[in-house]
Amino acid sequence: MKLLSFIPVLVVGVLLLYAAKDFPEWGSLDAPASKSPVSSHFIANTGVDTEVPNMVTAVLADYRGFDTMFETVVVFIAGMAVLAILKNSGRKKLVKREFEVDAEPDLIVTNTVRLLVPVIQIFAFYVLAHGHVSPGGGFQGGVLMGASFILVALSWDLETALIRFPFNWTTILGGLGVFLYAGIGLLSMFLGGEFLDYSELANIFTVSREMARYHAMLGVEIGVGLTVTAIMFSLYANLSTEGRHQRGL
Amino acid sequence: MGLALFNTFILLLLVVAALLALRVKDLLTASVVFAVYSFLMCLLWAEMGAVDVAFTEATVGAGISTVVLIATIFNLKRKSSD
After folding, report:
1. Counting CB atoms within 10 angstroms of each CB, which of A130, A174, A194, A223 has the fewest?
2. Residue A125, pLDDT score
3. ipTM > 0.85, yes or no
């Protein structure tokens, strides 16, 4: 069986290698990505339209905002699906697992984490808020923030982390993030523009239409960050305990 | 020349990591090797100038997905029968 499955893998591999020959050179000006009018439009107009120096953020949160909104919804649905599957499926009885030991949280580990977690969380806020200027944004900032709570759960236990971030909050915050994103989109629709056309928010923020897009992008990124933070922690809490939320990894 | 050497080195390590992650019987080791794979990919993205992608790869690929895999393995058998 293994040998049999090796043959299609080999065929596909050879085909892929053969197709890779037709790829343009890395960074080539003749590559379709460089030649398309869309890229040159973004390169020329992002700074003028939105005042955002980091083109990637502007494309992600503004020009392709609809796409990013549903990426956030996908993250939210993934978290809800894991919750729904594991909620009533796990062994209710606490059985001792294969390599589980009863031990106090290690002194060196917990004290290192005590020092590390605030730094990670501040860095997460920096990545989130500074996404307009430097690499980063809602997804990365949210993952960093979620990781800091997972780190607490890993070095003490899940209960300690759940005191800091109660499990009910994950569902609420996850939904709130999607709601914030869609809400900003709907608000710009009610103000006369199209869905997710942030420049209509200029009257609310009392800034120019370009700066309105800049600020609305931050709002949208905060929504993404909330959802990702909550869902990452919820995924960990569910998967490590089979949905019981006690005595985790 | 230096950059080409760097790329070749990383790509070779990538192949080694990918094969190792498939061959290893211990699932915990496999997921850690998988994190190494993600981190090597992150280095490649950063070297190509796609810092945003590199950042995402480092946080999501090497960070969270490893933790989620290990959390899942904790509730399963550790050895792969394959």
Report:
1. A194
2. 93
3. no
Average pLDDT on A230-249 reads 82
Q: Which two tokens stand for residue B12?
A: 């070779």
For residue B37, give both structure tokens. Answer: 């794979």
Amino acid identity at A44? A
What is the distance between the terminal CA atoms of chain B, rounded to a whole angstrom?
41
For B79, nearest residue in chain A (alpha carbons): A98
Q: Residues of B with CB below 8 A from A135's CB?
A: 51-52, 54-55
Catalogue the long-range contacts made by B26-34 (C-beta closer than 8 Å, 24 or more residues apart).
B26/B78, B26/B79, B26/B80, B27/B73, B27/B76, B27/B78, B27/B79, B27/B80, B28/B70, B28/B73, B28/B78, B30/B80, B31/B66, B31/B69, B31/B70, B31/B73, B32/B66, B34/B65, B34/B66, B34/B69
Report chain B residues whose CB lies below 8 A from the CB of A154: 67
Residue B6 has pLDDT above 70, yes or no: yes
Partners of residue B59 in chain A, C-beta under 8 Å: 140, 143-144, 147
Using an 8 Å Cβ cutoff, are A226 and A142 in contact? yes
